[in-house]
């Protein structure tokens, strides 16, 4: 299971020491201003000391500091955030691209830890664990009937590389209980979901985020697709919220010619840094198409903007999120960190695609309802564009800034209003659980089934009605009878994912992907 992305401690002693060291070099007016700011910092420190020493009730002053830090950052921009010590490890693992564990995808099923799938070549697969196994104990710690949170289970199953854990396992399909020793190892968290050929000349690469190892993963895929004959690459950045700028820049460099501009950044001192492509790109002449949607942000927008502004390829989809701010993660010395905005970035044409952030709350991060109601998810002309934010690409095409990357070729959310609800439902965790339970009833039946036989089984069996009943029990009242083919298609896709692998899943799901089909039709 994937683990789902620098602290501003109020350490005044350090600030005072720095102030003293620099004080003799400040002119009087600057010195007075500095001391005034320093007094404000001392005020916060004194307040926390008073609470800690004198307040009538016992309090954890760490939690007060956390509130203070969050309060300060809330006055800045929506992307300057505090990462508590308890969350920093998970965030770093996500961005690093690996963690140490036993290598399983799991979820809590009827209050027991059920293995959905072992990770290929991971410790659990090597030790013989299978889909459907229940892990009852980790060493002597009972895991069932305990109502343990997912984060707690992660911390139990993770550990030091090379450390051992003895698992007590129940295999329902064989009705037996057994013990197995597993040696924890490094488990990769892939940021490139898949690469595959769509036809004889078109390759497809899906990037889910930009982490430390994304470029290496991407380059492996791109190299392989070239060997297989691809002269057209589709880069899928949909629902990619960003990550490391450097990874996006390196990927852009593979497509752009030497010295073409990739991105510019400008800090508070108006210092501008430009990043140019190098001579090393391995795909500088083939056709490129980039897919984006309303959840493509930050590094995704940098990559899409570099391809678009250099007229290197076409961008398909819907207006992206609109994040044009650069953060740096800064450790605070106590295991926590603050991720602070240090610059704005600009696409090669000079666009800032940062959307307004007067509202820094939930509405800023989740604009889906607003875009849905305005109609822009279905019609390109519904997007409000300011003429004052007009820019030109390298060849003179008009592009706009001020709120995300506008695609060159618009692809609506669905063919018609109302269809998006069912699509979201069929791509939700609900379907994952339903399929797991269906498999769990008779795993031997599906053990060696082929793709063709699986489709026949789903269409001839009672799975559609079973799914309707499953939804009804969960209180979800959808009229699915007119959408039976679509429901069965998505059910088949999830069966394929759990029985086979991600490649097989994408081979199936992309056949009915509107955006991919739009690219292939050009």
TrEMBL record:
GO biological process terms on file: proteolysis; signal transduction
Organism: Flavobacterium cucumis
SMART domains per the UniProt record, alphabetical: TSPc
TM regions (residue ranges): 6-23
Recorded family membership: Belongs to the peptidase S41A family.
Taxonomy, superkingdom: Bacteria
Keywords: Hydrolase, Membrane, Protease, Serine protease, Transmembrane, Transmembrane helix
Record flagged with keyword Chaperone: no
Protein name per its UniProtKB record: Carboxyl-terminal processing protease
GO CC entries: outer membrane-bounded periplasmic space
NCBIfam families found in the cross-reference section: prc (TIGR00225)
Example of a GO MF term: endopeptidase activity
Keyword Hydrolase: yes
Occurrences of domain Tail specific protease (ranges): 175-356
Pfam families: PDZ_2, Peptidase_S41
InterPro entries for this protein: ClpP/crotonase-like_dom_sf, PDZ, PDZ_sf, Peptidase_S41A, Tail-specific_protease
